[in-house]
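User: I'm writing a tutorial on reading structure tokens. Could you give me a worked example: one chain, its sequence, then its tokens, then a sentence or two explaining what the tokens reveal?
Assistant: Sure. Here is the example chain.
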Amino acid sequence: MTLLTIYGASVVTLMMIFYALEQKSSWFTLAFGISCIGSAIYGFLAGTWPFGIVESIWSLVAFQKWYSMLDNPEK
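And here are its predicted structure tokens:
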């Protein structure tokens, strides 16, 4: 197992955990967005640029969701 594989498995696992915990706190949504960036970096480093692009977009969606939660905490 290479370091790149370990890194990729780690960030995808963090994404799953933070996604599952999103309803508990807006900070988990922010952590999900950050882990999506980590996953995008993995995709680009692994040579799977479509995965990297999709994860980059997904991180932007997560950051937008987190920002909107700051404006409206009831969400």
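What the tokens reveal: The chain has one domain: 3-71. The chain is about 80% helix and 0% strand.
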